[in-house]
Amino acid sequence: MTALATARVRREAAGARWGVARTALRLHRAALLVWALAVLGLTGWLVWLTEVTAGQARAEQEACDRAARDWCDTSLGTLGHSAPMDWIAALTAHSFLVVAAFAGGGLIGRELENGTARLAWSQSITPARWLAAKLTVPALAVTLGVTVLVLVFRWAREPDRDLIGTDWTDGSVFVALGPAAVAYALCALALGALSALLLRRALPALAVSVVLTWLLALVLGHFRAALWPALTRTSATGEVHVPDTAWQVDRGALVHGSPAPDVNHWSCDGTAEETRRCLDDLGVTGSYATYHPESHFWALHLVETGILLAVTAAATVVSFRLLRRRTA
User: Fold this and answer.
1) What is residue 12's predicted lDDT score, i.e. its pLDDT?
2) Measured between alpha carbons, how far is 216 from 214 in angstroms, rounded to an integer?
3) Which one, out of 180, 261, 262, 286, has a CA that is 20 to 30 A from the CA of 80?
4) Average of per-residue pLDDT across 151-169
């Protein structure tokens, strides 16, 4: 009888968890539908750009090159392909702001403010299982949707990189090219839930969650170049050549063999003798350049992804502990 009772309790608990998940699906089906339509719309736009406009832009670019025009790089055909790709990268990379607003306002904050959360807790579901179910459904939807956008964006961008004005060093493109886009969205979901649990009001939680995730993205973007050691090259005879696809972090003069970015050696101009005398007066013995080659993309990207997932885990743990403390 004890085994049967235990099995019945487990079935009831599992049924309660699935019940909350089904309730979350019904309650937020409009938001999930809008999200699905947005993902499908951006995916269809990428397919259209790749299969239709890319060929037209390339034909116009080749015709412009044959005509030897100076403004070929800014031809309307190329811009008609490059600008939409930039917009899609920006929308994909910043979709976490929408996730943060939804999590803080509609997903958690509204139920705490209206009292429907306490009604659910008074039934057969515990607060911890309620929060787990509330976060699981949007987490799966966000992970699936953003992953699709990242994969399709990479597929659409790779064969036509020469038609796109922005490269991997652009902030939006950098995020949209890998799992950091998913990590930003999951982090926004966790920070939104935490903000709602702290404030218990939908609109304030919405605003705070958006500001928090935006500030986090701003800080990571500012320090992105420092997430992985950059390469430094020096030259005693002239400027250091940096690959066209590299992310140049710093460039300057070598003064007595040491980097001195504050020394303005570019002001030395005139004849060769005058330039040499000017450089000697400044103590310039060469030049240097610090940069990330394109091969550093995945190292930089995965470090940023790891930081975001760590923040996500921390925010989730704090949310559950806060909920347990307030409902004990």
Assistant:
1) 46
2) 5
3) 180
4) 86
Provide the domain limits for residue 239. 231-295
CA quadruple 137, 312, 296, 58: dihedral sign:
positive
Say if residues 293 and 243 touch (Cβ distance below 8 Å).
yes
Please indicate, yes or no, whether residues 100 and 236 belong to a single structural domain of this protein.
Answer: no
Average pLDDT over residues 36-65: 83
* Per-residue CA distances from 293 to 179, 235, 251 (Å): 20, 18, 14
Across the range 196-209, mean pLDDT stands at 92
Phi-psi sector, 263: left (phi>0), alpha (psi -120 to 50), beta: beta
- Could you give the percent of the chain with pLDDT greater than 70? 77
- CA dist 56 and 286 (Å) reads 46
Strand boundaries in the chain, DSSP class E? 231-235, 247-255, 258-260, 284-292
Q: pTM of the prediction?
A: 0.85
Residue 293 exposure: Cα atoms within 13 Å on the Cβ side: 7
Report the pLDDT value the prediction gives residue 261, as an integer from 0 to 100: 63
| Alpha carbons 83 and 85: distance in angstroms, whole number | 5
Domain-located, residue 139: yes
Q: Can you give the length of the chain in residues?
A: 328
Looking up tokens 């976490």 gives: 96
Strands 258-260 and 247-255: antiparallel
Q: Are 197 and 250 within one domain?
A: no
Q: Which residues contact residue 293 at a Cβ distance below 8 angstroms, ignoring those fewer than 6 apart?
A: 231, 243, 245, 246
Are residues 283 and 197 both part of a single domain?
A: no
Number of H helices, E strands in the chain: 13, 4
Residue identified by tokens 């736009």 is: 45
Place of tokens 């030259």: 235
Model confidence at 279: pLDDT above 70? no
- Band (pLDDT 50/70/90 cuts) for residue 61 is low
